[in-house]
Structures are given as structure tokens and as C-alpha cells.
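ok trying this again, last paste got cut off
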Amino acid sequence: MEDRLSALPDELLLQILMLLPLIQVVQTYVLSRRWTRFWTQAEILHVVDREVDGGSVPGRFVRVVDSILSIYDRQPSRACCDFLISVSREDNVNVARLTSWARSAAELFEGDFLLGVETQRNEGLDSEEDQFSEWSDSDSDQEPEIFELPYFEFARKITITLNASFLFLALPLEAGAFTALTELVLTKLCFVDGARAALSEVVSSCCPRLASLVMRFVQGMTALTLCADSLRHLTLSCVHGLRLLDVVAPELGTMAVHCCFVASQGAVLRISAPWLLRFEWADCCPERTHVGPTEHLNTLLVGELRPVTWDQGFIAHSNFDMILRHFRRTQLLELRLPIHPDESAARHMEILAKETGSMNRSTILSKQ
């Protein structure tokens, strides 16, 4: 029988293999000598626990990942490959191994790194506020365990999701740098005590090329101070309990803050971003707010939150009209308001007229 598959050029064969679950791709090494290390030429290496063990073989996922990394460890040079790990079964969450795998990935690969632990589900929830409330209320009887993120010299993008109530994130404290990092995404995780200062230090001093920072559904971060010359995009969504946000970013073009400040009293917001083009705000306006010159601002999007119950029964909502006082010029002002049946858009416009009347802008009023 003619072996047409082996007759295909390497580039086409590799594309076909990448359509298969990784565990099946790795198993092709038994076919011939050509196939022994062929799969290691892939540009993306995505290990998914349910594809590996299907929940039927305890410990198999850990052994498979260890074996894959040991093969790359024997390569003469770093692989130009993105390394992604997805874990959805709680019995596959071995924190010591996760930390070890991250360190190996930093040494063996020159591509991006993703660690996605999703053992909790927040399905059927529409708004970010509802999703965060459901996620942050999750409890666990397990002892807290800490995942330690190492420095990645070559990764351009790092995405970390630790959606398991017993997992905490720790950042590197030793000397080092994320030399090539341009995008950092942190979602559904809790910082270990002291990590908030480490994040400010890491972003400000150890990420010389960082252009985008995204944080969603984060706990344990009460203060964030960023002094980043390269930062162009910043999104903070549901960073629960934030009390201080201080941003100095001369190249920042877009910034969004949603559902982070629990209350205005005692909170501090300072922004120095002279080239800011788009600013989105759906949050309480901190009591002490200072926004530097924003002469290039093109779009100002301000939204009123639906009332949200936070800790100790506190009902949070945004005094969005206050934030408007800190922006006197924009080309487009968009207001997103939760208008109840007994209220009218005209009434809201009447209330806002004093705050927006002096702005050079066109206004869009949309109903949430």
C-alpha cells in the first residue's frame, strides 16, 4: 500500500497534525524515524488535560507534560514555539508541577506562554458584575497553594488564569526581566500577600517593552502604581477592592476601568497620560482624583453601574458624573446609563447638562 501521508512535504504535514489533539500528535513518533521528533517543529504546543486523560487515568496528565518537556529539554536550542497549558479538572491541579512547567517553558521556548486553570464555571451570567460576584464568593476547604510565575526572557505574551479558589499568584522577587514581553493578561486570580507591590515593580521596572496590560476578575490587589514608558493599553475590570491607582504612561492610548473601586471615600486615582485617545470608565469616582492634560482625547465613554452588592452588604454604584469633571475636552462623549421604566433619557440628559455643557464634544446616550 502506498504511503501517501509520508510523501507530503513537512510544512503541509505539520499543518494537518496540528488539527489533532496533542496527545495523538505526540504518539506519531512510533510511525518512523522521520516522525520521532517531527511534532516538535510545531509553532503552538497546547496541552489540554481532558484531551490527555479524559478523566479516567489519574496522574496521566502530569506524566505526559513532564515527558513532553523532557523531550524539548534534549533539543540543542530553544524551540520557537508557544506553550499553552489548559487544566479544567481539579485533580490535575498540581501546583508544584505547574510552577515547574512554567520554569521549564521559560528556559525551553521562545514563544508565548499561557496557563489556564479553569476548575470553576460561571456559566449563564451576563454581566461582568454578576460573574465577578459569583467567582469571588467561591470557597474552598483546601489549603491555599501558590503558583510562582518565573521571568520569561523571550515570551511576547503571557496569559495567566487561576480560576481555582485555593490558588494564589506570586510574582518573581529576584533580579530578572520579561525582556521581550509586550502583552500581559491576568484573569480570575488572587494575588498572594505582597504581590501587589511586586506587580507594580515588575511592570514598571522589569518589562521594558510592555504595551498592553489586562487584568480581569482579580483579588488581592488594593494598590497599583504603574510607571511604564512603553505602555499603550490598560484594562482593569473587576479588580476587587482597589484603593489606589496611579498611572504614569506617556505613550498610553487607551484605558478602561470597570468595577474596581468599592467606594469613593479614601480612594485615590492619578493619571498622567498626555497621549490618551480613548478612556472608558464604569466605576466609583475616587475621592481624590487627578487627571493630567489629555489634549488628544478622542473618545470618553462613561457608564453607570447597576447596583452591585459587595462585601458586608455594601451596595456599590458609580458616581459617574464626578469623573466627567476631570475631562474638559473630547471629540465624542458616550454615556451608558441603566434607565428604569419610570425614568427617561431626557431626565438623565437634564441632570448631566451642567457637567457636559462646557465640553467640546458630541454626545451619545445609550440605555443599558
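PB: full thing came through this time. The radius of gyration is 24 Å.
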